[in-house]
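If your schedule permits, I should be very grateful for your opinion on a structural question. I have a record of one protein: its chain in single-letter code and its fold written as discrete structure tokens. Kindly check, if you would, that the fold set down in the tokens agrees with what the sequence suggests. I remain grateful for any guidance, and I place the record below:

***
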Amino acid sequence: MRIGVDIRGLLTGQHSGVEQYTLQVLEHLLKIDRDNIYVLFYVAYRDLDAKLSQLLSEATFLRSPNVEIRQLKWINFPLLLHAIWKPLGWPLADKVCGGLDVMWQPSPRLLPVSHRCRTVITFHDLVFALFPQFYTWKSRLWQWQMSYPYLARTAGRIIAVSESTKNDLVNLYRVDPAKISVVYEGVAPIYFMPSGTETINALRAKFQVTDKYLYYLGSLEPRKNVIAVVRSLHYIKQQGFANIKLVISGAKSWLSEAIFAEVEKLNLGSEVIFTGPVTEIEKIAWLQNATAFIFPTFYEGFGLPVLEAMAAGCPVITTNVASLPEVTGSAAMLVSPYQQSELNSALQRLLMDPGLLRELVASGQERARQFTWEKTAVATLKILMDGGE
């Protein structure tokens, strides 16, 4: 078979969960499948050829013998491409790729193919439909013109990363549940392995983190409810936990100014450390040495940072919404994202109860071992081979 893979999302310069998912699944697909041809498709404009070269130098598995790379050369204006793709359905991506049996899109994007090419699309979440208030008007306009309801209804098969996302697709977009397969994301074995002291010591020195610390990992945007973590830090300091800081890792996103304003308002400028984006090795070191991982998000399609924290042996406090109870089981403390007092109380209880802390470490790692990228790739390959009809 010739299996197309839309890799446009890997060339955006972002390092979100969707990009991590795409790379992990591709790496493991190429490990278990030597027979089928994988045709990586992208649109060449601006500096994307250079970004592709960088990607290939970092993700060397993409140079496997059964990998081809095809590009659609287009004018330096992607919105024009969308304007032609949407009403005209041209040019056809499978034709550009030299003919395909199936096209897999690791995230939904406009991409017309011929009737002979089956389609499989992975949907991670429907946050833009459920919580439009978390986006700027420009973001909402972009999401609208991408026609996600149409893509969901017309896809041959859909991969949902959780039962929660599957339910959202059925309830919001009226998608036939029979064509949706739930395939969980995974966590790499390196998260379970002690990272040593060299990396964390260097990070502590760089950011002057000498005491215990709480950890948050994720983009700085309203949906993630980072303000609640800042407020909980302020609360526990008032309860006598003076020697603890908060380390926040992640890139600034839209509407993030309120987070910094809250830090200033609560006079926590020296207590909250913003590291910016981190490498995989740095992330693991921060997680493995944190007192707790706090993730009070309003909504997640899967919640990969929570799974990674559990694998790294970091006690987790997260929310009781969407996919998170599904992912964590009984291995995390769950609170309402709408009740600051619940988060405050859970954090205080965790800090005062070493036995609870040890219990969460053990149960979290046991739970995390159930999610592997190998399982994700095997299930994905079966769906691609079955087709999208």
